[in-house]
Amino acid sequence: MRHVSSMSTAASGHWVGDGFPVRSLFSHMSGENSHDPFLMLDYAGPHHFEPASRPRGVDVHPHKGFETVTIVYQGEVEHGDSTGKGGVIREGDVQWMTAGDGILHKEFHSHDFTARGGPFEMVQLWVNLPARDKSAPPGYQAITDAQIPAVDLDEGAGRLRVIAGTFDGHVGPARTFTPMEVWDLRLNAGKRADLAPPDGQDVNVVVLSGAVAINDGAPITGPAVARLEGEGTFSVAAETGAKVLLLSGAPINEPVAAYGPFVMNTEAEIRHAIAEFRAGAFGSL
Fold first, then answer.
1. Model pLDDT for residues 222-257, shown as the tens digit of each residue
2. Who's near 224: CB < 8 A, 6+ residues apart?
3. pTM above 0.85, yes or no
4. Among 10, 56, 88, 162, whose CB has the most other CB atoms within 10 angstroms?
5. H-type helices in 100-158, by residue range?
6. CA–CA gap between residue 71 and residue 142 (Å, rounded)
Protein backbone atom coordinates (compact mmCIF):
# COMPACT_ATOMS: atom_id res chain seq x y z
CA MET A 1 0.00 0.00 0.00
CA ARG A 2 1.15 3.53 -0.70
CA HIS A 3 1.72 5.83 2.26
CA VAL A 4 2.14 9.57 2.80
CA SER A 5 5.83 10.48 2.95
CA SER A 6 5.55 14.27 3.07
CA MET A 7 3.02 17.06 2.92
CA SER A 8 3.20 20.73 2.04
CA THR A 9 0.76 23.60 2.15
CA ALA A 10 0.57 26.69 -0.01
CA ALA A 11 2.98 29.49 0.65
CA SER A 12 1.73 33.06 0.67
CA GLY A 13 0.24 34.05 -2.65
CA HIS A 14 1.57 36.33 -5.36
CA TRP A 15 0.32 37.71 -8.67
CA VAL A 16 1.46 36.49 -12.08
CA GLY A 17 0.84 39.46 -14.31
CA ASP A 18 -2.37 41.19 -13.29
CA GLY A 19 -4.70 38.28 -14.04
CA PHE A 20 -3.54 35.31 -11.98
CA PRO A 21 -3.44 35.45 -8.16
CA VAL A 22 -1.53 32.22 -7.44
CA ARG A 23 -0.28 30.11 -4.60
CA SER A 24 2.63 27.76 -5.42
CA LEU A 25 1.86 24.34 -3.91
CA PHE A 26 5.27 23.03 -4.95
CA SER A 27 8.11 24.34 -7.09
CA HIS A 28 11.47 23.24 -8.46
CA MET A 29 12.58 26.82 -7.82
CA SER A 30 12.99 25.84 -4.15
CA GLY A 31 16.10 23.90 -5.18
CA GLU A 32 14.42 20.52 -4.84
CA ASN A 33 12.88 18.28 -7.50
CA SER A 34 10.98 15.98 -5.16
CA HIS A 35 7.87 15.85 -7.37
CA ASP A 36 9.71 14.58 -10.49
CA PRO A 37 8.54 14.59 -13.31
CA PHE A 38 6.32 17.49 -12.16
CA LEU A 39 8.21 20.73 -11.64
CA MET A 40 5.73 23.23 -10.26
CA LEU A 41 2.04 23.67 -9.52
CA ASP A 42 0.42 27.09 -9.18
CA TYR A 43 -3.17 27.32 -7.96
CA ALA A 44 -4.86 30.52 -9.11
CA GLY A 45 -7.92 31.67 -7.20
CA PRO A 46 -10.65 31.30 -6.37
CA HIS A 47 -10.85 35.04 -7.02
CA HIS A 48 -13.66 37.31 -8.15
CA PHE A 49 -12.84 39.77 -10.93
CA GLU A 50 -14.98 42.79 -11.63
CA PRO A 51 -15.89 43.55 -15.26
CA ALA A 52 -13.15 45.44 -17.10
CA SER A 53 -12.47 46.95 -20.51
CA ARG A 54 -8.95 45.53 -20.89
CA PRO A 55 -8.11 41.81 -20.51
CA ARG A 56 -5.92 41.00 -17.53
CA GLY A 57 -3.08 38.49 -17.78
CA VAL A 58 0.53 38.00 -18.87
CA ASP A 59 1.92 39.35 -22.13
CA VAL A 60 4.43 37.63 -24.42
CA HIS A 61 7.10 35.58 -22.62
CA PRO A 62 9.31 32.57 -23.48
CA HIS A 63 9.51 28.96 -22.28
CA LYS A 64 11.95 26.17 -23.12
CA GLY A 65 12.62 22.59 -21.99
CA PHE A 66 9.30 21.57 -20.41
CA GLU A 67 5.50 21.60 -20.79
CA THR A 68 2.77 23.72 -19.22
CA VAL A 69 -0.64 22.27 -18.37
CA THR A 70 -3.49 24.70 -17.64
CA ILE A 71 -6.75 23.39 -16.15
CA VAL A 72 -9.58 25.92 -15.92
CA TYR A 73 -12.20 25.40 -13.19
CA GLN A 74 -13.95 28.78 -13.42
CA GLY A 75 -13.56 31.67 -15.82
CA GLU A 76 -11.85 31.70 -19.22
CA VAL A 77 -8.24 32.02 -20.40
CA GLU A 78 -7.21 33.04 -23.91
CA HIS A 79 -3.88 31.74 -25.19
CA GLY A 80 -1.71 32.54 -28.20
CA ASP A 81 1.78 31.35 -29.10
CA SER A 82 4.56 31.61 -31.68
CA THR A 83 3.48 28.40 -33.44
CA GLY A 84 0.28 30.16 -34.47
CA LYS A 85 -1.88 28.07 -32.14
CA GLY A 86 -4.23 29.42 -29.53
CA GLY A 87 -7.80 29.78 -28.43
CA VAL A 88 -10.06 30.17 -25.40
CA ILE A 89 -9.83 27.67 -22.54
CA ARG A 90 -13.20 27.49 -20.79
CA GLU A 91 -14.48 25.82 -17.63
CA GLY A 92 -13.41 22.17 -17.64
CA ASP A 93 -10.99 22.62 -20.56
CA VAL A 94 -7.26 21.87 -20.51
CA GLN A 95 -4.37 23.41 -22.42
CA TRP A 96 -1.27 21.22 -22.75
CA MET A 97 1.57 23.23 -24.28
CA THR A 98 4.96 21.77 -25.16
CA ALA A 99 7.65 24.45 -24.97
CA GLY A 100 10.29 21.97 -26.15
CA ASP A 101 12.97 23.74 -28.15
CA GLY A 102 11.53 27.17 -27.37
CA ILE A 103 8.22 28.98 -27.63
CA LEU A 104 6.73 32.42 -27.02
CA HIS A 105 3.21 32.69 -25.63
CA LYS A 106 0.79 34.96 -23.85
CA GLU A 107 -2.14 34.27 -21.52
CA PHE A 108 -4.99 36.65 -20.78
CA HIS A 109 -8.55 36.45 -19.54
CA SER A 110 -10.82 36.02 -22.55
CA HIS A 111 -12.57 39.10 -23.88
CA ASP A 112 -15.98 37.71 -22.88
CA PHE A 113 -14.89 36.92 -19.32
CA THR A 114 -13.19 40.32 -19.03
CA ALA A 115 -16.40 42.09 -20.00
CA ARG A 116 -18.68 40.18 -17.64
CA GLY A 117 -16.29 39.43 -14.75
CA GLY A 118 -16.99 36.71 -12.21
CA PRO A 119 -15.26 33.90 -10.31
CA PHE A 120 -11.90 32.71 -11.60
CA GLU A 121 -10.05 29.51 -10.67
CA MET A 122 -7.40 27.50 -12.47
CA VAL A 123 -4.28 25.38 -12.04
CA GLN A 124 -1.07 25.62 -14.01
CA LEU A 125 1.26 22.65 -13.81
CA TRP A 126 4.79 22.49 -15.22
CA VAL A 127 5.87 19.05 -16.47
CA ASN A 128 9.54 18.34 -17.10
CA LEU A 129 10.86 16.85 -20.33
CA PRO A 130 13.74 14.35 -20.37
CA ALA A 131 16.98 15.52 -21.97
CA ARG A 132 16.23 13.62 -25.18
CA ASP A 133 13.00 15.61 -25.67
CA LYS A 134 14.02 19.11 -24.61
CA SER A 135 14.70 19.88 -28.29
CA ALA A 136 11.25 18.63 -29.38
CA PRO A 137 9.32 20.98 -31.67
CA PRO A 138 6.96 23.29 -29.74
CA GLY A 139 3.37 22.05 -29.70
CA TYR A 140 -0.09 22.74 -28.38
CA GLN A 141 -2.95 20.46 -27.34
CA ALA A 142 -6.34 22.12 -26.89
CA ILE A 143 -8.40 19.64 -24.86
CA THR A 144 -12.06 20.43 -24.28
CA ASP A 145 -14.14 19.21 -21.36
CA ALA A 146 -16.17 17.06 -23.78
CA GLN A 147 -13.01 15.19 -24.84
CA ILE A 148 -12.06 14.20 -21.28
CA PRO A 149 -13.55 10.88 -20.09
CA ALA A 150 -15.53 11.27 -16.85
CA VAL A 151 -15.97 8.18 -14.66
CA ASP A 152 -18.43 7.79 -11.79
CA LEU A 153 -16.60 6.31 -8.80
CA ASP A 154 -17.92 3.28 -6.90
CA GLU A 155 -20.61 3.70 -4.24
CA GLY A 156 -21.29 7.32 -5.12
CA ALA A 157 -17.84 8.47 -4.01
CA GLY A 158 -17.70 11.11 -6.73
CA ARG A 159 -16.44 11.63 -10.25
CA LEU A 160 -13.02 11.34 -11.88
CA ARG A 161 -11.91 12.94 -15.15
CA VAL A 162 -8.99 11.29 -16.96
CA ILE A 163 -6.89 14.10 -18.44
CA ALA A 164 -3.79 11.93 -18.99
CA GLY A 165 -3.09 8.24 -18.45
CA THR A 166 -5.81 5.67 -17.87
CA PHE A 167 -8.45 4.87 -15.26
CA ASP A 168 -10.83 1.91 -15.26
CA GLY A 169 -10.27 1.35 -18.98
CA HIS A 170 -10.75 5.01 -19.90
CA VAL A 171 -7.83 6.73 -21.65
CA GLY A 172 -7.11 10.43 -21.23
CA PRO A 173 -6.67 12.56 -24.38
CA ALA A 174 -3.40 14.26 -23.42
CA ARG A 175 -0.28 13.04 -25.21
CA THR A 176 2.74 12.88 -22.89
CA PHE A 177 6.46 12.29 -23.39
CA THR A 178 6.85 10.15 -20.26
CA PRO A 179 4.35 7.90 -18.43
CA MET A 180 2.01 9.84 -16.16
CA GLU A 181 -1.54 10.05 -14.85
CA VAL A 182 -3.38 13.34 -14.39
CA TRP A 183 -6.79 12.72 -12.78
CA ASP A 184 -9.24 15.46 -11.80
CA LEU A 185 -11.52 14.31 -8.96
CA ARG A 186 -14.61 15.63 -7.25
CA LEU A 187 -15.26 13.68 -4.04
CA ASN A 188 -18.53 13.70 -2.14
CA ALA A 189 -18.62 14.38 1.61
CA GLY A 190 -18.47 11.24 3.73
CA LYS A 191 -17.41 9.03 0.80
CA ARG A 192 -14.23 7.08 0.13
CA ALA A 193 -12.39 6.23 -3.10
CA ASP A 194 -9.72 3.55 -3.54
CA LEU A 195 -7.15 4.51 -6.17
CA ALA A 196 -4.36 2.52 -7.81
CA PRO A 197 -1.97 4.53 -10.00
CA PRO A 198 0.59 2.42 -11.89
CA ASP A 199 3.41 0.91 -9.86
CA GLY A 200 6.77 2.58 -10.47
CA GLN A 201 5.24 6.05 -10.46
CA ASP A 202 5.51 8.63 -7.69
CA VAL A 203 2.14 9.97 -6.58
CA ASN A 204 1.09 13.48 -5.51
CA VAL A 205 -2.40 14.10 -4.15
CA VAL A 206 -3.19 17.79 -4.61
CA VAL A 207 -6.11 18.88 -2.43
CA LEU A 208 -7.36 22.12 -3.94
CA SER A 209 -10.40 22.55 -1.70
CA GLY A 210 -12.18 20.64 1.02
CA ALA A 211 -10.66 18.14 3.45
CA VAL A 212 -9.62 14.53 2.83
CA ALA A 213 -7.95 11.73 4.79
CA ILE A 214 -5.49 9.45 3.01
CA ASN A 215 -5.48 5.86 4.30
CA ASP A 216 -7.56 6.98 7.30
CA GLY A 217 -4.85 9.38 8.42
CA ALA A 218 -5.23 12.91 9.72
CA PRO A 219 -7.40 15.19 7.56
CA ILE A 220 -5.63 17.28 4.93
CA THR A 221 -7.33 20.59 4.21
CA GLY A 222 -6.68 22.26 0.89
CA PRO A 223 -4.87 23.82 -0.67
CA ALA A 224 -2.16 21.27 0.16
CA VAL A 225 -0.12 18.48 -1.45
CA ALA A 226 0.56 15.01 -0.04
CA ARG A 227 3.39 13.03 -1.62
CA LEU A 228 2.99 9.25 -1.50
CA GLU A 229 5.58 6.47 -1.62
CA GLY A 230 5.31 2.71 -1.99
CA GLU A 231 3.31 0.64 -4.44
CA GLY A 232 -0.26 -0.51 -4.86
CA THR A 233 -3.45 1.21 -3.78
CA PHE A 234 -4.38 3.96 -1.34
CA SER A 235 -7.67 5.42 -0.17
CA VAL A 236 -8.95 8.98 -0.11
CA ALA A 237 -11.86 9.66 2.25
CA ALA A 238 -13.63 12.99 1.85
CA GLU A 239 -14.43 14.67 5.15
CA THR A 240 -16.19 17.39 3.16
CA GLY A 241 -16.90 17.81 -0.51
CA ALA A 242 -13.42 18.03 -2.05
CA LYS A 243 -11.68 19.02 -5.27
CA VAL A 244 -8.56 16.90 -5.78
CA LEU A 245 -5.96 16.60 -8.54
CA LEU A 246 -3.95 13.38 -8.65
CA LEU A 247 -0.53 13.60 -10.32
CA SER A 248 1.33 10.34 -10.78
CA GLY A 249 4.43 9.98 -12.93
CA ALA A 250 7.51 7.94 -13.66
CA PRO A 251 10.52 9.94 -12.37
CA ILE A 252 12.88 11.21 -15.06
CA ASN A 253 15.82 11.15 -12.60
CA GLU A 254 17.92 13.74 -14.41
CA PRO A 255 19.58 16.93 -13.17
CA VAL A 256 17.42 20.05 -13.27
CA ALA A 257 18.92 23.45 -14.07
CA ALA A 258 16.33 26.22 -14.06
CA TYR A 259 16.27 29.94 -14.65
CA GLY A 260 12.86 31.61 -14.81
CA PRO A 261 11.01 30.23 -17.84
CA PHE A 262 13.84 27.87 -18.91
CA VAL A 263 14.31 24.34 -17.50
CA MET A 264 17.31 22.40 -18.80
CA ASN A 265 19.84 19.88 -17.43
CA THR A 266 22.94 22.06 -17.05
CA GLU A 267 23.82 25.69 -16.44
CA ALA A 268 25.57 25.79 -19.82
CA GLU A 269 22.27 24.81 -21.49
CA ILE A 270 20.50 27.59 -19.58
CA ARG A 271 23.01 30.16 -20.88
CA HIS A 272 22.51 28.81 -24.41
CA ALA A 273 18.71 29.03 -24.04
CA ILE A 274 18.94 32.67 -22.96
CA ALA A 275 21.20 33.46 -25.91
CA GLU A 276 18.77 31.74 -28.30
CA PHE A 277 15.86 33.73 -26.93
CA ARG A 278 17.73 37.03 -27.23
CA ALA A 279 18.67 36.14 -30.81
CA GLY A 280 15.02 35.61 -31.74
CA ALA A 281 15.26 31.82 -32.19
CA PHE A 282 11.87 31.25 -30.51
CA GLY A 283 10.01 32.98 -33.33
CA SER A 284 7.68 35.91 -32.94
CA LEU A 285 4.20 36.63 -31.60
1. 999 999 999 999 999 999 999 999 999 999 999 999
2. 7, 8, 9, 10, 25, 206, 207
3. yes
4. 162
5. 111-116
6. 11
